[in-house]
Amino acid sequence: MLITRPNHDVTINYLYYWSQYIIKIGKAHKLTVTDVAGSRANKKEIIGIISKTKPSFVCFNGHGDEKTICGYDNEPLIQKKLNESILSDVVVFARTCRSAKELGPSCVKKGTTAYVGYTDDFIFLTEEAKESRPLTDKVAKLFLEPSNDVAISFIKGHSAGQANQRSKDYFKKNIKKLMTSDTPKEDRELIPYLLWDMDHQVCIGNEKAVI
Amino acid sequence: MDKKDRFYKVYNNLPLNLREEVILVINDEPITWKVARLEIDGNTNLSKIILDKLDALKFI
Amino acid sequence: MNTQTSEVTDEEIRKLVVARLHSFPAGRKISIGNDGEFTKDELIKSVEKDDRIGKKIIQVQLSYLQSLKEQRFLEE
Asked: Which chain B positions have a beta carbon within 8 Å of C58's beta carbon?
């Protein structure tokens, strides 16, 4: 598997750190994990590695839009009607805003086996005081653990449809916990955003695909 | 089901932790689920406006 | 809010979302994709200005409030 981990702004830096759990589980399951981190998450390097190593699973972290997955410094890596075919026969998890809206379906049309991603902005809350130590941020954890579960489920052998559903179940579990009377009132403010991410996460392509 | 019944159906199943959330602002006054229920229980003039607005917003 | 009519205007919706944002906890930020991270005060300003971020927050809040009648989280 290949995982991209740019870290050029605060938001992306959260994904950079929280993706470490995906890498750890990948290695524990004896997968060859190619971690393309920091400024290495540029187009030349990523396309080169995908072409050379032909990973069965690619996990993208980064910004994006309906037609684009971006890497370090928001350089476009994969763009609709440009180079989706590089992801032919690959299972993709794109933790990027909105790319599942157009790029995802386009990738699948061009041969991507399955594409799990988000059809709108991926939103999460953070604790300001924890920005320099994202892994200690208990608020961000409520969003990024369920999102990580897509990739982790793939690594554990689940299919694309199952990975998507397991992640949504995790979001749902967190939402339900926040709805109970034991939860501090300020934490209920997280619910609309968790629901948003859960509802906009989709699986396109072959739901039975495994990596 | 009329708007009042629909309100109660939503309210009765609303987790306790969410009942103090603001759902409308009327005459610059925030109205929570609980305040809406108070007005609707009392069949006040305001309750009709509340129910109409909640219906228009598709909250009930 | 316009009490004379059952219609709900965009201005009323903005006021509702601003009122809801007042209970957004201090010390937390919302990260919205490419647009960056926002504090409570910045979000309120965005909603009042009705800019892209403001529209997004309104969409998220309305979507959530409309979902409550479906009772999705009470099912097993």
From this structure: none
Question: For residue C8, what are its two tokens?
Answer: 């709900």
Q: Which of B18, B53, B60 sits opposite C8 (nearest CB)?
A: B53
Contacts of B15 in chain A (CB under 8 A): 179-181
The contacts of residue B44 (CB under 8 Å, 6+ apart) are none
What is the mean pLDDT of the segment spanning A148-165? 98
At A82-138, the pLDDT tens digits run: 999 999 999 999 999 999 999 999 999 999 999 999 999 999 999 999 999 999 999
pLDDT at residue B24, rounded to an integer? 98
> Are C30 and A127 inside 8 Å of each other by CB?
no
**A neighbour chains, 3+ CB pairs within 8 Å:** B, C
The whole-angstrom separation of Cα C55 and Cα A95 is: 22
Is the Cβ pair B56, C62 closer than 8 Å? no
Report the length, in residues, of chain A. 211
Average model confidence (pLDDT) across chain A: 97
All structural domains of chain C with their residue ranges = 10-75
The pTM for the full model equals 0.96
Contact B23 C65 (CB under 8 A): yes
Pick the residue from chain C with its C-alpha nearest to A12: C33
Q: Do C27 and A128 touch (CB under 8 A)?
A: yes
pLDDT tens string B5-60: 999 999 999 999 999 999 999 999 999 999 999 999 999 999 999 999 999 999 99
Rounded distance between C-alpha atoms, residue A99 and residue A65, angstroms: 5
**C7 confidence band (pLDDT: 50, 70, 90):** confident
φ, ψ (nearest 5 deg) of residue B30:
-65, 140
DSSP state of A66: T
A67 touches chain C (CB under 8 A): no
Q: Say yes or no for a CB contact (<8 Å) between A188 and B16.
A: no
Contact A202, A118 (CB under 8 A): yes
> Could you give the CA distance from residue A155 to residue A31 in angstroms, rounded to a whole number?
8
